[in-house]
Amino acid sequence: MISIALYNNKGGVGKTTSVINISQQLALKDKSVLVVDLDGQANCSRFFVDEPKAGLAEALIKHVVTPANAKCNTRYPNIDIITATAELNKILPEFGALDEETQFKQVEKIFSFSEMPWYGGKKYDYILIDMPPALNELTKAVLGACDIVFVPIELGLFSIQGIPTVTDIISRCGTKFGGCFANRFDKDNPSDVQLLEMLHGNLGKKAMNTVIPYSRVIKNSINFSVSASEYMNWTNASDSFKKLTDEILERIGE
Ligand SMILES: Nc1ncnc2c1ncn2[C@@H]1O[C@H](COP(=O)(O)OP(=O)(O)OP(=O)(O)O)[C@@H](O)[C@H]1O
Ligand SMILES: [Mg+2]
């Protein structure tokens, strides 16, 4: 099992959209995925289930929560989710007050859910974590406990200038930075083309080859609660998430 977090402390860059589409692409490859929604906004949870339950918040603080009652099935047979609700934001002070070792243990407990036999007695191949646009004790503990972090960014000077802050957070948490990919790329905008070059110049191999285009297919698909490939699988948008998933697998050596 490999745990992959999508993180940027900047909001609205496409973390949730990417988690949704990558998990679907992995499922299409017949992989089993446990999505963990770590964001109290619960966008990812609401995409996958009608009524998210506060299992994650409880599991992080209390000891009584079992995998069976913390996770939910989704309409995709290969994807389960540990949902978030606004409850998650409420437990942050309590979680922050735990000593570091306990924080880490609690987060590990969530990850060890993936070792439990799931549907058909199989184990999850991947855990995909949708991180909030924040830096707090919980995000630090999760970044520290997961195997690898990928960073979506929206092309803009400030975003590119902000990347060292994000990579610094990741390395201080002791986790591998897998790479950074540009989202909402507009190939007809010379400024985007230039900024993409700047991204590659600044990050070298850590700048990913895959670029996710700005696309109505992506925007609308989320609004219809389907992935880009379910919405229009012949489009560039759908193809870009397939490429992103392949590149992520390549970068984690799978
Ligand atoms: N490539 C894209 N083309 C068009 N719209 C996009 C694209 N990527 C994301 N969006 C839209 O942008 C909005 C923000 O995306 P998303 O929620 O994935 O960002 P986020 O990083 O998870 O935000 P937050 O930090 O608030 O959790 C959503 O409405 C989403 O549908
Ligand atoms: Mg999000």
Please give a structural write-up:
This protein is α/β, with parallel strands linked by helices. It has a single domain, classed as Rossmann fold (3-Layer(aba) Sandwich). The protein contains 13 helices and eight strands. The protein has helices at about 15-30, 45-50, 55-60, 65-70, 85-90, 90-95, 100-110, 135-145, 155-170, 190-205, 215-225, 230, 235-250, and strands spanning about 1-5, 35, 70-75, 80, 125-130, 150-155, 175-185, 205-215. Strands 3-4-2-5-1-6-7-8 form an eight-stranded mixed beta sheet, with helices on both faces. Adenosine-5'-triphosphate binds near residues 12 and 43.
Keywords for this entry:
single chain, 254 residues, alpha/beta, Rossmann fold, 8-stranded mixed sheet, 13 helices, binds adenosine-5'-triphosphate, binds magnesium ion
Query: What is the helix content?
Result: 40-55%
The number of distinct helices, counting runs of at least 4 residues, comes to 13
Main sheet attributes: strand count, strand direction, barrel closure: 8 strands, mixed
How many independent structural domains? 1
Number of strands: 8
- From the 3D structure, determine the CATH topology: Rossmann fold
Radius of gyration: 17 Å
Helix and strand run: EHEHHHEEHHHEHEHEHEHHH
Low-confidence runs of at least 5 consecutive residues: none
